[in-house]
Design goal:
The protein has about 450 residues and is an alpha/beta fold. It is built from eleven helices and 18 strands. The two termini are about 30 Å apart.
């Protein structure tokens, strides 16, 4: 990076800008408004010495080439600490190699402590077997409906012990301190997602939404405060991402309380149960509208940014999926600072790409122009697929960083800038706009 560009990236002391809905925008270390567009990167199939071998540098090179700047990297506590108190340095080196690849391709990473159906004690990944306590309650696998396994008595009791047992609380906090100490100040690591899709134990007479709100209020909120403190003791700068239960996907507001940390991101997932079961999108059902209304309540109340950690249907080729992607992208753009689709892989199912590396049906609609960093306060930003045009209006910062960076998908894009700004330079898939301090800037990016 040139000395001129480095100087223009000097940190700013401006107050964090506000996004739509009264929700704060995510910011980078230079104080610029940050937009994340990307995908989950995972290897659930391999563990131990073979852990993460399915993730390659190609993932990040292809992601960046198609216009994405963000990866949510799945890691597993059972691989990090296979024996209590013994942390795998080999696994940490594997994670470090991956985030080094991300840095090489200018992709930001959130490290996600992933669990599915608690962990390996139930045939999945996540919390180690040594930290799984079931009180002898039964568990029956559901091969055709793995999500139903969350409601097995043994799984629900294991979550209760994780939240309540003092020794397990300490062990979880220590594991996060190990991760945060290893990746503090890594140039690619933006933050840490403290636990994927947490669940809990239903009490007699509770329906699922009532149980979810109680679990979020009474168990997840104190857990997140403990884990945020643990992360912060090792990494003073990273964002901590907190998730509600997956029930939010049905348009249910969360019961989460305040997380007492200055850099918290609300990170819900955006899934619909019917679509997860293989149904087509129903534009008239009002699901996206209900989800948006529910999911914005927490960040408005607690003034934290939103990044949606997972979304995308199992079958993107159904008749209404073109409409789904257009509706979803418009909705996500209204309230979030970004998202990670599920998932960046080469094949079938949820994969974004086919074996050749081309987008699978309708998933190309996730690749839009956007401003990945804005040096100032965003007034409006939106992409109109009807005329393939992205428009950005912002008030440039008066102090600090003066560079706004655009991310462009593959293809011919024409950029025009109005107001007190110029296009400083362009490269493949990128453009940088330099604005005068305090000026009003209008940017138009048009395909063709």
């Amino acid at each position: 990076m040139s000395a001129v560009v480095t100087a223009l990236l000097a940190p700013t002391t401006a107050h964090p800008p506000r996004a739509a809905h009264g929700i704060p925008a995510l910011t980078d270390r230079h104080g610029r408004v940050l937009t994340l567009r990307g995908w989950n990167v995972e290897d659930k199939a391999h563990r131990g010495d073979e852990a993460l071998t399915a993730v390659t540098e190609r993932h990040f090179g292809d992601m960046r080439a198609k216009g994405f700047n963000f990866a949510r990297l799945l890691v597993f506590w059972d691989d990090l600490e296979p024996q209590r108190g013994q942390y795998s340095q080999r696994y940490l080196r594997k994670i470090e190699r991956i985030v080094d690849w991300a840095a090489r391709h200018d992709v930001k990473v959130v490290i996600d402590a992933h669990q599915d159906v608690f962990g390996p004690a139930f045939g999945h990944r996540g919390i180690p077997e040594w930290a799984t306590r079931t009180d002898g309650l039964p568990f029956t696998a559901h091969p055709g409906d793995w999500f139903a396994e969350y409601f097995e008595p043994a799984v629900q009791r294991a979550f209760t012990h994780l939240y309540q047992d003092q020794d397990l609380r300490r062990a979880q906090a220590r594991a996060w301190r190990v991760l945060a100490a290893r990746f503090a100040r890594h140039p690619a690591v933006l933050g840490y997602d403290l636990i994927n899709e947490p669940m809990g134990e239903l009490q007699q007479g509770e329906d699922l939404p009532t149980a979810a709100r109680r679990i979020e209020r009474d168990q997840l909120t104190p857990m997140y405060n403990r884990l945020a403190d643990s992360v912060r003791s090792a990494d003073p700068d990273a964002w901590v991402f907190v998730e509600p239960t997956p029930i939010v996907g049905e348009g249910e507001p969360t019961g989460l309380g305040r997380i007492d940390d200055p850099k918290v991101v609300y990170a819900p997932h955006f899934y619909n149960a019917a679509m997860e079961a293989g149904a087509d999108y129903d534009p008239g059902a009002g699901w996206i509208e209900a989800y948006e209304q529910a999911v914005t309540e927490y960040p408005k109340q607690y003034k934290v940014p939103v990044v949606v950690g997972e979304w995308g249907p199992l079958d993107s080729s159904l008749p209404n999926m073109n409409r789904f992607y257009r509706d979803a992208m418009a909705s996500l753009g209204r309230y979030s600072s970004g998202w990670a689709g599920y998932t960046w892989c080469y094949g079938g199912g949820y994969c974004a790409l086919d074996a050749s590396g081309a987008f699978r049906t309708n998933k190309e609609l996730t690749a839009e122009p956007y401003a990945q960093t804005v040096a100032g306060t965003v007034r409006s930003a939106a992409y109109n697929p009807a005329d393939a045009t992205y428009r950005l209006a912002y008030s440039a910062a008066r102090h600090g960083s003066r560079l706004t960076e655009l991310s462009l998908p593959q293809g011919p894009w024409q950029i025009t800038v109005g107001g007190s700004a110029v296009v400083l330079r362009r490269s493949a898939g990128r453009a940088w706009v330099l604005a005068a301090p305090g000026g009003e800037v209008h940017v138009t990016v048009r395909h063709g």
